[in-house]
Amino acid sequence: MRTRRACCASSLTITDENDKDVITIDGPCCCTRCCSDADFPLKSASTGTVLGQIKRKYLGYIQANYSKADVFEIDFPSDLSVRMKAAIIGACIMIDFLEFEVNTNRNNTRHNSS
Predict the structure, then answer these.
(1) Are 84 and 23 in contact (CB under 8 A)?
(2) pLDDT at position 108, please?
(3) How far is CA 59 from the centre of its chain?
(4) Range list of H helices, 1-114
(5) What value does the mean pLDDT take over residues 61-82?
């Protein structure tokens, strides 16, 4: 899995065991995800067709400000391999850390990797 930062949204690429791009995940603009659900479509790297999505559910103002819990929903085709399903679950965890967790040890800067 690789990450890259695009303007104001995150982008991830899930690769297979031969390092071939299989699924791309492009996040929403950072200004549109604070008070609503955030959709991260899962797209085929070869055709660009939407295969499913990772969605962070917005739980409302009170819960968002007084709870550290996040709720994610993942939709993917049932015919994907177990490895790809596991990689998508891993991508969900990575999205949570990259987009929605604040780490004061990083001085509020985001981690960028290529």
Answers:
(1) yes
(2) 46
(3) 18
(4) 61-66, 82-95
(5) 83
The first and second tokens of residue 82, run together, are: 């177990």
If you compute the radius of gyration of the chain from its CA atoms, what whole number of angstroms results?
14
Strands (DSSP E) found in 1-114 = 2-6, 9-15, 21-26, 38-44, 50-57, 71-75
Q: What is the pLDDT of residues 77-92, one digit of tens each?
A: 889 999 999 999 999 9
pLDDT, position 51 = 94
Asked if residue 27 lies in contact with residue 10, where contact means CB atoms within 8 angstroms, the answer is yes
Sheet holding 2-6, edge to edge: 2-6, 9-15, 21-26, 38-44, 50-57, 71-75
Helix (H, G, I), strand (E, B) or coil at 31: helix
Is the confidence at residue 6, as pLDDT, over 70?
no
